[in-house]
């Protein structure tokens, strides 16, 4: 396989439409009251797959430098289950890779120190690299040293010069946000020790397709990976995936462990072939595995709208939970606004008092639920369904119910 693995270079004749979500706004910007008077910029969001390398991707609509700024609205530590997930990862890999006070760990897109804080507590030297200065202030409170920069060849060179090469590079849910995969890989090769490890987590394309998770497609996510596509990408640059784990996070993710081709330690595990076989069984190596996705998501749109309209006509009070990026994609693709969902509840302080892009639905705090007593709460962050239901179980007192629409309509 000889494919450059990016939208610009994949020949047009190799690109096939995977999903057309219509004209959508940026998902990372919630609106202020002043913004409501302005016209929003909408761009057509179409994702394609390459029939040669089967990498799902879309054109770069938004420059990362315009996204990851001071007021970036995602704080990883607000999701307790995610922090717990990362704590387990840290403790497990300290043991697995014999990390000590003489080791050095670097996390790409370290956000508010949600993961590296656990290395700090174990007194293992670590460094975060994060372009959004707002979340870095929270990382400092956790004792996590962080460089306020984008991860690229220049910053990797600086880390090697001023700190050390890394025994472990961690990149959780960031690879899809990096438009230049080549630069990420070459930067990591420079930063990594000869026997070092790169641990990467990303939502698994297999689950995106199988569970119709179209709302995880948005302007910030340039790529959507299967194990088979990412394996070929790393192989192209002389890196080897030696292990993988299937995770429940973010609707079903993969964690891959990568090493340099010349490294003799960390033998390839049978789990690699197990996941590759599963992908093959689900036709991710064939055109037919991708061509039906658009039809399926249009059915979800139709079903969601019909359900909400019926409930509204019956006088039901409907709100939603989770002013997340995926919520913006779902609401705007389905053309849902305040006529159907009056408010979106969220626990992140920076989001309260703002409005969802395009749909203009106001974002409120959890206290609103007790005052409003909604009949139905649509869980837009379906990947945190159990956590949300447990947290808001008090709505049962007035016979309130929870709804999810992905992968199908369910009432709880």
Describe the 3D structure.
The model has no long low-confidence stretch (mean pLDDT 92). It is built from 13 helices and 17 strands. Strand 15, helix 13 (385-391) and strand 16 (401-404) form a beta-alpha-beta unit. The termini are far apart. The longest helix has 21 residues, at 293-313. Helix content is 31%, strand content 21%.
Mean pLDDT: 92
Number of helical elements: 13
Structural class by SSE content:
alpha/beta
How much helix, percentage-wise, in residues?
Answer: 25-40%
Low-confidence stretches: none
In total, how many beta strands? Answer: 17
Sheet of most strands: 7 strands, mixed
Terminal CA distance reads 47 Å
Per CATH, what is the topology of the largest domain?
Answer: Rossmann fold
The CATH homologous superfamily of the largest domain is named: Vaccinia Virus protein VP39
CATH architecture of the largest domain: 3-Layer(aba) Sandwich
Outline: globular
Beta fraction: 15-25%
What is the H-and-E element order?
EEEHHEHEHEHEHEHEHEEHHEHEEHEHEE
CATH classification class of the largest domain: Alpha Beta
The figure for the number of domains is: 2
Radius of gyration: 21 Å
